[in-house]
Amino acid sequence: MDLFELTSEPIDITAVSRRIVPPECGATVTLDGYARRFTRVKESGEIRETEYLMYEAYEPMALKEMAKLIERAKAEFEIAWVGIVHRLGRLEIGETSVVISVAAPHRKAAFAACEWIIRELKKTVPIWKKEVYANGEEWVEGETSA
Questions:
Q1: How many CB atoms lie within 10 A of CB 102?
Q2: Which sequence spans correspond to the domains of the chain?
Q3: Superfamily name with CATH number, domain 3-134
Q4: What percent of the chain has pLDDT above 70?
């Protein structure tokens, strides 16, 4: 059974990844995305030290888009189950912001689907991240590199 949720509480990674282990599956791949201290700015190459993150979402649309994302992943990859849980609100460095778990008969499909889901989630789901620094803050769009 698929899972997609938004929460303001800390995410229990194991509860997401082991929520269900289908008998037809041999692997579950889980991404634990968490708040990092240092971020490289794409345009300038500057490295910024993050104090904390803030996540906001347009919740009804975000949940709808997460469900569509799961259906697209199931059509694209040979997978059985997907769990996506995203945290909202203030996150301290090291706290989990998103967990994505993918169960599949074979690990190759689970890895590929997990990578695809996080990329598409950042592009299509209305969840916004604000990075707060000692000398300012910035709303960040899409992927940034470490």
A1: 31
A2: 3-134
A3: Molybdopterin biosynthesis MoaE subunit (3.90.1170.40)
A4: 96
